[in-house]
Design brief:
There is one protein chain. This protein is mainly α and 110 residues long. It is built from 3 helices and no strands. It is rod-shaped, with a radius of gyration of 30 Å. The N and C termini lie far apart (62 Å).
Length: 110
């Protein structure tokens, strides 16, 4: 490009198509940011889902394993009860791990 006396490159005239494109891009970026904010969700909801899952899944899983072992060894209902209480204890331990993690953490423990 040719330079003028001050050594600067002369500016091109504004292009209406580029301005229109910039405006559309800004609108789309704002819409995408609003959509992302809506779908982010509540971090407390995730913690509540984990707590409910551990309180239901622990005893249920332990009870099913105990029932299977009881039917295998013929010790009904003792292994079912033992595994049910162990599952509940594991669920409570996992909930205590969640309560110790910072709010930004994953909540799965380590």
């Amino acid at each position: 490009m040719a330079e003028d006396e001050t050594g600067e490159v002369p500016k091109l005239p504004p292009d209406a198509r580029l301005e229109s494109l910039d405006e559309r891009l800004d609108r789309l970026q704002q819409a995408e940011a609003a959509k992302a904010a809506r779908t982010q969700g509540d971090p407390n909801m995730r913690a509540a889902q984990l707590v409910i899952g551990y309180l239901i899944g622990g005893p249920l899983g332990g009870g099913l394993i105990g029932w299977g072992l009881d039917s295998l060894f013929g010790t009904k209902p003792w292994l079912t009860l033992l595994m049910l209480f162990l599952g509940f204890g594991v669920g409570v331990r996992n909930i205590l791990r969640i309560s110790r993690t910072p709010p930004g953490g994953t909540g799965t423990g380590s």
